[in-house]
Amino acid sequence: MSIHQELDLAHMQAAFAAPVRDAQTCFRALLEGLARPGRIQRLADIPVPPAGLGAAQSAILLALADRDTPVWLPPVVRSAAAGAYLRFYCGCPLATRLADATFVVVSTLAGLPALYDLSLGDPEFPDRSATLLVEVASFDSGASLRLRGPGIADEAELRVADWSESATALVQENRRRVPLGVDIVLTCGDRLVGLPRTVHLTAEGMACM
Amino acid sequence: MNATTAPVQAGYNFAYLDEHTKRMIRRALLKAVAIPGYQVPFGSREMPLPYGWGTGGIQVTAALIGPDDVLKVIDQGADDTTNAVNIRSFFAKVAGVATTTRTTEATLIQTRHRIPETPLAEGQILVFQVPIPEPLRWLEPRETETRTMHALREYGLMHVKLYEDIVRHGRIATTYDYPVIVNDHYLMRPSPIPKFDNPKLHRNPALMLFGAGREKRVYAVPPYTDVRSLDFDDHPFAVERWEEPCALCASTEAYLDEIILDDKGGRMFVCSDTEYCAVRQEAGHKGAMAP
Predict the structure, then answer these.
(1) How many CB atoms lie within 10 A of CB A206?
(2) Does the CB of B96 have a partner CB in chain A at under 8 Å?
(3) pLDDT tens across B131-141, in order?
(4) Which of A21, A28, A30, A178 to mutate to test the interface with B (most CBs of B within 10 A)?
(5) Model pTM?
(6) Do A63 and B67 touch (CB under 8 A)?
(7) Beta bridge partners of B207
(8) Contact call for A127 and B23, based on CB within 8 A
């Protein structure tokens, strides 16, 4: 859909039922998620997402995206209902370049962008960096990830389906660049897990390791 | 006082701030948590009270608070001083949330210059009111320079300041707002808490957020994060100790305030954390001057 195309309001899906309350609960779950990496948070009472977005991804963007935060969507998602949905409810610009985006939506782990295509902040302002919202297939099966770092008492364990060596490499390279880097939120339906840039990640039990 | 609720005052958005401002503060807080100890700039708003009365802490609390939260506010450890009473009643009015003085009941604790004596737990968030967030500000006035110094972890100047303390006084004379290194990177001001509270910052199970309204910065110490007070091998960091216990609850572990009783040298030492002291007295602990 072109950015200038009329919004089709007749078919626009509903967003938050109570925007003030729902945005607050989503934010708190996300804050808890990033403050306690590896611990799964569930978002309650969130709306059915538009096609192409996960429920948690959509709720996070409804809670936090606005005219100040360019959002990057995979092209196929952007041109579908999700693009119009976010423009209508959040008023956010839809970035065409990854490096311009504050929020980057990734639909599968295989679609993870290269770290250096993203905005990593600069040494004086490492906060001016992207947040990735990555939809994964499951938190109940797949590779076992061990996490250490701020927010984790000792060690946290997390299972992520279809986790790949390139995903491990991206998280480890991201850690190596601290304080620069991106912050990753893994989402699965209405659940989320935070992987901030400070997390040390090691993967076990992957097929070809 | 146990948890109480008040009706919401009409005419305000929930928790006073508009939603666009809340989103901006929330995004800043998320980055603050992801980069422990780093000061994230944010667009601080005019608040209905002057700078210096906790405008930064209030904006952080307003961005966090939800209808299910139970809020506690302390000022120098006390629940019943002007600043604490006003901020508590502000949020009772504009958010209709339950307020409490019990540390263990609270989900959100906004504090001016103390960390409660009762250990915090997971699920609690401590919000600090910060006057000057930049630890290097009195050593280097230029923001452009201090930003570069943080980027390069160039903190020699702060060590020189502490060293000069030792040369002049024979010991590190900084007793509050004592500089710390967070997660082995950023030098951070813990806000003007007594250095007695610095060890509580280290690997605390609660999330700690800091808001500076006038200086327009937020920063964070996530749970279980290493927080090290700066010191030297031959002058290790040490907290204050008192020769006598609290005069009311006989605690030997709390931070004590000295209270002058007359002009003949009479004085007493009492817990600065009023709730901790009251709970101990209810449990039967009696100090030398207990009623």
Answers:
(1) 15
(2) no
(3) 999 999 999 99
(4) A28
(5) 0.95
(6) no
(7) B125
(8) no
**Token pair of A100, please?**
């311009």
- Give the residue numbers of B annotated as catalytic, written as ranges: 37, 246, 249, 271, 277
Q: Nearest-CA distance from B288 to chain A in Å? A: 40
Give the CATH number, domain containing residue A156: 3.40.50.11310
Residue listed under structure tokens 């590779």: A143
Quick check: B5 contacting A, CB < 8 Å?
A: no
Q: Residue A10 domain-assigned?
A: no
Tens digits of residue pLDDT in A60-107:
999 999 999 999 999 999 988 999 999 999 999 999 999 999 999 999
Number of domains in chain A: 1
Q: Can you spell out the DSSP letters for B50-77?
A: -TTSSHHHHHHHHHH--TT-EEEEEETT
Task: State how far the Cα of A112 lies from the Cα of A107, in Å rounded to an integer.
Answer: 8
**Cis, bond preceding A179 (omega within 30 deg of 0):** yes
Give the domain range for residue A157: 15-204
On whether residue A23 sits in a domain, the answer given is yes
Number of CB pairs < 8 Å for A and B? 107
Residue A7 in any domain: the answer is no
Rama region for B24: left / alpha / beta (φ>0; ψ in -120 to 50; rest): alpha
Does residue A2 sit within a domain?
no
